[in-house]
Amino acid sequence: MITKTKPGYLLILGTASHVGKSAIVTAICRILSKEYRVAPFKAQNMSLNSWITADGKEIGIAQAIQAKAAGVEPTADMNPVLLKPKGDRQSQVIILGEPYADKAAGEYYDSIHTMHEILEGALRRLGEEYEIIVMEGAGGAAEINLYDRDIVNIGTARLTDAPIILVGDIERGGVFASLYGTLELLPDDVRANVKGFIINKFRGDIAILEPGLRQLEEKTGIPVLGVLPYSKLGIPSEDSVSIDDKAGSTPSDHDIEIAVIRFPRISNFTDFEPLENLAHIRYVDLDEDLGTPDAVILPGTKNTISDLCDLKKSRLYNQIKKFSGKGPIIGICGGYQMLGKIIYDSGVEGGENREYEGLGLLDIETTFKLYKKKTVQVTKAITAGGEIFDPIKGEAVSGYEIHMGNSTSKDFVFEDDGCIDSTGLIFGTYFHGLFENENIRNALIRYLYRKKGLEYIPEQNAVIDPYEDLADMVFENLDMSRLYEIAGLQLSQ
């Protein structure tokens, strides 16, 4: 067990996936960072939304967000194990930011003792630099079938002996039963460290909820620290669970629609969240029709070959090709590779040594030769022309790359990256985070407005810090003096 003399620990566990653990950790990191040096930590994350650190390491995007909220640079120690599902019960295992191997669940759990050592090392290194580590669990904490191999909930709790706050989501229904049941199913030593409850995503009159809160406290002896209202967060989504919320949303009143192809193995769909306030972003499953969007985006994917093969079997394949000439078609990472003529695979991506025909909309060829991933932050100049890029040609754009395979191109978009066709309307890039660049965002939306005979006036609102907004909401609705006490900290008056 790691000693608690330095640093302090706080562990946020949940009754299920998607109850709001990541957002709550983000808010707590921001709040505590005003008085303490704070680091986030999640022992093991399963997500296809990832981030590249300054030194080229790949971690879950949630920990990068939490580090930003805390005002510190994200590092691989904050998410030492990242699992990226590839399908067929296989996941790519990323250890300390580097690809380790593709493993089935059973194979991964066989190495769980090694993972414990990796976690302990990461926590020790963080403890040398930070005063308090705010840790996040994964999924539901009471997965009783996994207790002997659960490194992220039970393992982290035992490794640090941290005080625990348990979060439940009232939108799912049965929040009192889920909190009480999770508590009762925890191992005795872990249950003893549960010091508070948080109820999340509440809509309505809190007075109606009050009797239940008091009864829960009476039955468990554990205080409810507060009830957080339902709110639309301005921070990137953590994982694929969140995309279901987007896919089920009703069309907005935006004047333009952008269709994002929802590949079975879609990754880093957070790339398109900066566009959500400017256009209706519609995620299109492979068994749906493309419809009549103003632009089409092929996003990143954890397995380009498998998703390309699935796309070819669907009616969307021909619909995307027929859309050529009607509006922009944009490929990001794996989607960029699919827009090309040919993909050569030595077997590292699709499992077979063969070539695959792409959509043929860009003059590129991609080769998967080595089990090696490029992970780097990048800033480059816009070198492409055409109606979209001419107004911003020469300006800088920033992003990050996470991909296997290399693509040949002559008609670059950003210096030596990407490819654009002769019309200037079909282009692809390896840049993730492309639309976080205001110049790119405005150039695309302005073009789409102009094609519909509309005038686009970029919003000139003051920059709003989403982390501060989230922190304010949490601070106002939780008993912060008690939370500080649980964490062993002193709240300044």
Automatic annotation (TrEMBL):
Transmembrane segment boundaries: none
Stretches assigned to the CobQ/CobB/MinD/ParA nucleotide binding domain: 11-232
Alphabetic keyword roster: Cobalamin biosynthesis, Glutamine amidotransferase
Residue span(s) of domain CobB/CobQ-like glutamine amidotransferase: 257-439
Pathway terms, separated by semicolons: Cofactor biosynthesis; adenosylcobalamin biosynthesis
Biological process per Gene Ontology, one example term: cobalamin biosynthetic process
CDD domains: CobQ_N, GATase1_CobQ
Gene3D superfamilies found in the cross-reference section: 3.40.50.880, P-loop containing nucleotide triphosphate hydrolases
Active site location: C333, H432
A GO molecular-function annotation: catalytic activity
Top-level taxonomic group: Archaea
Family to which the UniProt record says this protein belongs: Belongs to the CobB/CobQ family. CobQ subfamily.
Function comment: Catalyzes amidations at positions B, D, E, and G on adenosylcobyrinic A,C-diamide. NH(2) groups are provided by glutamine, and one molecule of ATP is hydrogenolyzed for each amidation.
NCBIfam families (UniProt xref): cobQ (TIGR00313), PRK00784.1 (NF001989)
Protein name: Probable cobyric acid synthase
Species for this entry: Methanosalsum zhilinae (strain DSM 4017 / NBRC 107636 / OCM 62 / WeN5)
Gene that this polypeptide is encoded by: cobQ
